[in-house]
Amino acid sequence: MSIAFLVTTLIVVATPGTGTVYTLAAGLSRGRRASVVAAFGCTLGIVPHLVATITGAAALLHTSAVAFQTLKYLGVAYLLYMAWATLRDKDALVVDDDQAPRPASRVVLTGVLINILNPKLTMFFLAFLPQFVTPGQPGSVLRMLELSAVFMLATFVVFAGYGVLAASVRGQVTSRPRVMTWMRRVFAGSFVTLGAKLAFSAR
Fold it and tell me: Buried b vs exposed e over 156-175: b needs ≥16 C-beta within 10 Å?
């Protein structure tokens, strides 16, 4: 495992994005457990991109403008939906120990969808992983799986860390109504900004 791969992976994973925003929101609204579950969902969302890269399907996204644009705008639409849902749900960031916990399956599914509908992640795997794998050599697929596993582990650890950190201050933050109003706006604005960035991105 090269240092260059590890450093690049940590930079990519730690850079704030849709998964980070979602995990932070989960930590603030539901606590440590929800943030870890959200991080797990975002990590699972990497698997389809990995499979697409290994099977060569990612090459279709790279060469087909229609395929890329379709997935891109599905992702944009979902991010805008997340922004709308965050502003609409006044209880989204409320600390209430008596409220029914959000099903883990729903938290995971949202995290998975956030990363599945991100064609830039497939582009990252297509452009990044091959640099650390010798093409045509025996075990190249296994090597790619190994590197991908490290990337996914880093994603889970970093995202969970973000979420747990947010959960540790949720009591102080969510007990202030005005702060919560601005937090909802910040998260919604973050989703809109990320959606706009994705919408105007080129391959």
Answer: bebbbbbbbebbeebeeebe
- Cα separation, 195 vs 174, whole angstroms: 26
Query: Which of 180, 168, 135, 129 is CA-nearest to residue 152?
Result: 129
Whole-angstrom distance, CA of residue 71 vs CA of residue 69: 6
DSSP character at residue 118? -
* Segment 52-104, tens digit of pLDDT: 777 765 565 556 667 667 767 776 786 687 677 767 765 444 444 444 567 88
Per-residue pLDDT of 111-150, as tens digits, reads 888 888 776 677 677 666 766 766 556 677 788 788 889 9
Tell me the one-letter amino acid at 169: V
Joined together, the tokens standing for residue 194 give 């990320």
pTM of the model: 0.69
- Looking up tokens 């599905």 gives 74
Task: Report the alpha-carbon distance of residue 157 to residue 165 in Å, rounded.
Answer: 12
DSSP state of 79: H
Q: Is 171:95 a contact under the CB 8 Å cutoff?
A: yes
pLDDT of residue 24: 87
CA dihedral 153, 155, 157, 161 (to 10 degrees): 180
Task: Please give the radius of gyration of the chain, using alpha carbons only, rounded to the nearest integer.
Answer: 18
